[in-house]
Amino acid sequence: MHVGFAGLGRMGVPMARNLAPAGFDLTLWNRSADKARALAEDLGCAVADSPRALSDAADVVVTMLADDSSSWAVHVGADGLFAGSAPIYLEMGTMSPDHIAALAEKAPAGVTVIDAPVSGATQAAADAQLLIMAGCTPDDAAPVSRVLEALGSQTICLGTQGAGTVMKLAVNSLIHGINQTLAEAMTLAEAAGIASDAAFDVIEASAACAPMLRYRRPLYLDEAAHDVTFTVALARKDMEVTADLAARLGTAMPQGLTTLDQLRKAETAGYATRDMASMLAFARKEER
């Protein structure tokens, strides 16, 4: 099977690295062509000079793009993915359900678009331990099951197109809420004179500890010493898309709106490109 991969950001690079040794003929495309060429040379795979050429070379195209607008730009147009001939597209970035519906409507006849966003940070991507939430049936996923198995530890098929995207937004709203609550809990403990590492020891040993707190501990305690894995700007984007969806569905999200408000404030204060763990630093600043 020939796999095309578009979008070589923080998550895309380790995902592409897992496809290369899995027995696929791999072709890469990235908006920054130098990045694609460097990774292709390292992996011994091909590079496409346009999204259309990537699609023409592939049986399935995997995209890992940042948002709706970047995804639309890559898919649509004379040199877009949909101008090529690939029959299946796996949309693995965090998008809105309306965008997935628009892609499916714009796709050429006979083409399958599957929303298959992932949960897990960059280390999970590197270890092929991502959870994949697929907006399709198991039968729909069967033709790309080997690709999904190379990228993640579990794929949950949610039955209908768009359901994977909705579930990803629901999961991310929980993650960003936990991130915000952790920041508040830590600043409370620190304000009472408890050392940061001791406070985190207690939280990590408690019933309140989610897996993301454990693997993000180094970032919370020494953000500057570690690479960014997920920015405040991306978290704000996630929560805006989620809040818009909740409003359209008539679902109350008071905690989500509070989280969104804090992310917007942090972004305005200059935290946009910092890791989402920097919400702890922002909470400390707010507390003062």
Structure description:
With 288 residues, this protein is α/β, with parallel strands linked by helices. The protein has 2 domains: 2-160, 3-Layer(aba) Sandwich (Rossmann fold), CATH 3.40.50; 166-287, N-(1-d-carboxylethyl)-l-norvaline Dehydrogenase, domain 2 (Orthogonal Bundle). It has 14 helices and 9 strands. The strands form 2 sheets. The chain has a 6-stranded parallel beta sheet, with helices on both faces. It has a 3-stranded mixed beta sheet with strand order 7-8-9. It is globular and about 60 Å long. The model has no long low-confidence stretch (mean pLDDT 97).
Q: Please identify the oligomeric state.
A: single chain
The structural class is alpha/beta
Uncertain spans: none
* CA-based shape: globular
N-to-C span: 57 Å
Strand order of the largest sheet: 3-2-1-4-5-6
CATH topology of the largest domain: Rossmann fold
SSE order in H/E notation?
Answer: EHEHEHEHEHEEHEHHEHHHHHH
Number of domains: 2
CATH architecture descriptor text of the largest domain:
3-Layer(aba) Sandwich
Reading off the top of the CATH hierarchy, the class of the largest domain is best stated as Alpha Beta
CATH superfamily of the largest domain: NAD(P)-binding Rossmann-like Domain
Total beta strand runs: 9
Major sheet description = 6 strands, parallel
Radius of gyration: 20 Å
Topology (SSEs and partners):
Blueprint: E1 2-6, H1 12-19, E2 25-29, H2 33-43, E3 46-47, H3 51-56, E4 60-63, H4 68-75, E5 88-91, H5 97-106, E6 112-115, E7 118-119, H6 122-126, E8 130-134, H7 138-141, H8 145-151, E9 152-157, H9 163-191, H10 196-205, H11 211-221, H12 232-249, H13 254-271, H14 279-287
Parallel strand pairs: 1-2, 1-4, 2-3, 4-5, 5-6, 8-9
Antiparallel strand pairs: 7-8
